[in-house]
């Protein structure tokens, strides 16, 4: 998600002018933010060692789990060490919740004013950075550390609650949400945002952002008026995104409502198996994969020469990437069912194991962006954008190592989560064999993930 900044900045050709890849500044050489490790010809680490290390980690973890892990150990939302009652009271206090809602609404109004009154230049207007960096990328560490924080900050929830205080709104009865709808609206909303970021024409334009955000807010509030506040949990792109990532947070809620510290695997195991869950995770994985490929010279040339035009071609590429991720997962689920026999929810049973993989990709692609462009966006919002440019947190070698480790670690965590679910669902004689399709899927995803980092 690289940001074209400064007067005369040249947008990345492969990502609709915003993308997470190349940032060009006037009179400066190209700076690689998200990928950060240069081209395959001058990598600071060997591609051979990157792939060999990844395969070794996956195979060793798979064999160790098959030999040493014969029964399910994760207990979902029944586990966790309760935090002190005083700390929980502070976290749940109406004053705390009101302050967080006020903070979210204030930030949203500040972005809106910047879009309305600020210059149409992402180098001088903090609004694009606030949306694409502080919100989208910043939700990753925030949700990992604090849980599903966007549920508390979401300005649309706050506006809905304020609207419910009107006398006419109090008399309005809400329609029930169809159970079969599940998280499909959130998957669609996530696709819409990733399309805006990666495929839309001029996504950093204030006009584009203002139109997209106000249209999104109007639709969300209108449907919440019909279905009630629960609509946001099932359909808001950022709430679904934050809630999924928060499944790997050490901070969570037990089934009795207590605020607890827990093994992140327990939270991951508690991921609700609902319609649309697979689609939501596949949108995250597929859009990140497309983002990684969008800076490849071959794809940039395709965009520039396609008779369809850049935006339709980029849209088809994004759809194809998501469809590929989803198809591979569905084939894996079908193979697991073939090996182990029928089991309930063949698609959703192992969908939670994709969450740490998506997290690993997000960290690999967006870490450098957050630590370089995040502070610059804050400085711009505070009127101190003449401050010195922030230095990269890691050198090329360190960033390359972080990216490969993030991708591999995400897959290893996915293998562990899938193994625990497998030994719970299947007889011991079939549990390990039933994971072979999942292991194959993890290997394919790993090859693709590291390959995209090396392109």
Describe the structure.
With 455 residues, the chain is mainly alpha-helical. The protein is built from 20 helices and five strands. Strand 1 (22-23) and strand 2 form a beta hairpin. Helix 5 packs across helix 12 (237-246). The longest helix has 31 residues, at 310-340. Residues 1-43 have low confidence and may be disordered.
| Number of beta strands | 5
For the biggest sheet, the summary is: 3 strands, antiparallel
Strand order of the largest sheet: 3-5-4
Which spans have pLDDT < 50 for at least 5 consecutive residues?
Answer: 1-43
Question: How many alpha or pi helices?
Answer: 20
What is the end-to-end distance? 16 Å
Output the helix-strand order.
EEHEHHHHHHHHHHHEEHHHHHHHH
**What general outline do the C-alpha atoms trace?**
globular
Q: Overall pLDDT, averaged?
A: 83
- Which class best fits the helix and strand makeup? mainly alpha
Helix content: 55-70%
What is the CA-atom radius of gyration, in angstroms?
A: 22 Å
Strand content: under 5%
Keywords:
single chain; 455 residues; mainly alpha; 3-stranded antiparallel β-sheet; two-stranded antiparallel sheet; 20 helices; globular; disordered N terminus
Topology:
Elements: E1 22-23, E2 31-32, H1 47-68, E3 81-82, H2 85-92, H3 94-117, H4 127-135, H5 139-146, H6 150-153, H7 155-163, H8 167-170, H9 184-198, H10 206-227, H11 230-235, H12 237-246, E4 251-253, E5 259-261, H13 264-269, H14 277-293, H15 297-305, H16 310-340, H17 355-381, H18 396-425, H19 428-431, H20 436-454
Antiparallel strand pairs: 1-2, 3-5, 4-5
Helix pairs in contact: 1-18, 1-20, 3-7, 3-10, 4-17, 5-12, 7-10, 9-12, 9-14, 14-16, 14-17, 15-16, 16-20, 17-18, 18-20
């Amino acid at each position: 998600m690289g940001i074209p900044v400064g007067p005369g900045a040249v947008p990345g050709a492969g990502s609709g002018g915003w993308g997470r890849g190349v940032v060009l500044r006037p009179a400066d050489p190209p700076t690689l933010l998200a990928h950060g490790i240069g081209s395959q010809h001058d990598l600071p680490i060997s591609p051979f060692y990157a792939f060999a290390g990844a395969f070794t980690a996956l195979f060793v973890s798979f064999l160790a789990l098959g030999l040493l892990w014969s029964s399910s150990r994760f207990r979902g939302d029944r586990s966790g060490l309760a935090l002190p009652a005083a700390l929980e009271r502070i976290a749940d206090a109406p004053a705390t919740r009101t302050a967080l809602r006020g903070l979210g609404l204030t930030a949203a109004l500040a972005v809106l004013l910047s879009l309305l009154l600020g210059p149409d230049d992402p180098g001088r207007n903090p609004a694009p950075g606030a949306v694409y960096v502080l919100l989208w990328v910043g939700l990753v560490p925030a949700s990992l550390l604090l849980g599903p924080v966007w549920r508390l900050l979401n300005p649309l929830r706050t506006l809905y609650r304020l609207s419910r205080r009107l006398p006419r709104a109090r008399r309005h009865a809400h329609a029930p949400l169809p159970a079969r709808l599940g998280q499909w609206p959130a998957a669609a909303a996530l696709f819409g945002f990733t399309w805006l970021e990666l495929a839309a024409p001029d996504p950093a334009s204030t006009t584009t952002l203002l139109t997209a955000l106000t249209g999104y807010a109007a639709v969300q509030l209108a449907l919440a008026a019909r279905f009630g506040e629960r609509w946001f949990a099932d359909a808001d792109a950022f709430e679904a995104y934050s809630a999924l990532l928060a499944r790997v947070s050490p901070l969570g809620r037990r089934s009795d409502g207590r605020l607890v510290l827990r093994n992140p695997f327990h939270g991951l195991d508690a991921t609700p198996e609902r319609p649309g869950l697979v689609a939501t995770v596949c949108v995250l994985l597929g859009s990140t994969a497309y983002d990684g490929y969008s800076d490849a010279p071959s794809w940039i040339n395709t965009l520039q020469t396609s008779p369809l035009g850049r935006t339709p071609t980029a849209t088809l590429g994004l759809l194809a990437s998501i469809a590929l991720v989803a198809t591979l997962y569905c084939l894996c689920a079908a193979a697991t069912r073939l090996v182990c026999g029928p089991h309930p929810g063949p698609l959703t049973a192992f969908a939670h194991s994709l969450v740490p993989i998506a997290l690993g990709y997000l960290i690999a692609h967006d870490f450098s962006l957050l630590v370089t462009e995040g502070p610059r966006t804050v400085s711009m919002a505070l009127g101190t954008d003449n401050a010195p440019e922030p230095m990269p947190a890691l050198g090329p070698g360190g960033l390359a190592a972080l990216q490969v480790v993030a991708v591999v670690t995400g897959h290893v965590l996915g293998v562990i989560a899938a193994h625990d679910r497998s030994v719970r669902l299947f007889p011991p004689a079939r549990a390990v064999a039933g994971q072979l399709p999942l292991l194959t899927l993890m290997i394919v995803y790993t090859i693709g993930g590291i390959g995209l980092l090396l392109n």
